[in-house]
Amino acid sequence: MTGMLILVRHGQSEWNLKNLFTGWRNVELTEQGIGEARATGKKLAAAGIVPDLFYTSALRRAQHTLDLILEEMGIVNLTITRNQALNERDYGDLSGLNKDDARAKWGDEQVLIWRRSYDVPPPGGESLKDTADRTQPYFEAEILPHLKAGKTVLVTAHGNSLRALVKAIEGLTPDEILKREIATGEPVAYRIGPDGAMIEKVTL
Ligand SMILES: O=C(O)[C@H](O)COP(=O)(O)O
């Protein structure tokens, strides 16, 4: 019996649309983001996926995405586990700033280092490594045991917190994960064996 893990990045948010660093700030989904979340729900339902357990971050955009997916799948009477370990990477002092304005102020190279280096944190914030250091232990303690037991688990979270999970699951190097972009509304799924190792990536 194999487990199945489905990772979903929240739909487009107001600040994704405005091109602002978001991190731990609470922002709403746009109309497009709501549509993306609903489309993901339809896609999972059409694939015959019936999750046993549901996890999300402590941030509204990921929680709202999960609610919309569940509505489309017609799933009611469930328990959702919300934990800030799954929150987006904290962008610190960059939060709320426009990404183009930040490039104009600090230069393309510096902003790219803050956004896509593995272990250089933005001022007052978390590097991807810092994010992985809270996201991966949470995954291993709270989610992986259910996957080993053959359950299907749905997680809605964020670009960088999911990147940290994908790195661990696929066994990627820092360089490899930095090149991986996780799109809003496109589920990433894995079959997981009883030993906790990935058996295969599943296209939904
Ligand atoms: O927090 C944010 O701004 C985004 O969710 C992720 O941003 P990034 O692609 O710039 O890391």
UniProtKB/TrEMBL annotation:
Keywords: Gluconeogenesis, Glycolysis, Isomerase. It comes from the Bacteria. The active site is at H10 (tele-phosphohistidine intermediate), E88 (proton donor/acceptor). The keyword Plastid does not apply. The record marks H158 as: Transition state stabilizer. Coiled coil: none annotated. Pfam families: His_Phos_1. Pathway: Carbohydrate degradation; glycolysis; pyruvate from D-glyceraldehyde 3-phosphate: step 3/5. Its EC number is 5.4.2.11. Substrate binds at residues 9-16, 22-23, 61, 88-91, 99, 115-116, 159-160. One of its GO terms (biological process) is gluconeogenesis. It catalyses: (2R)-2-phosphoglycerate = (2R)-3-phosphoglycerate. GO terms for molecular function: phosphoglycerate mutase activity. Belongs to the phosphoglycerate mutase family. BPG-dependent PGAM subfamily. Catalyzes the interconversion of 2-phosphoglycerate and 3-phosphoglycerate. Homodimer. This is 2,3-bisphosphoglycerate-dependent phosphoglycerate mutase.
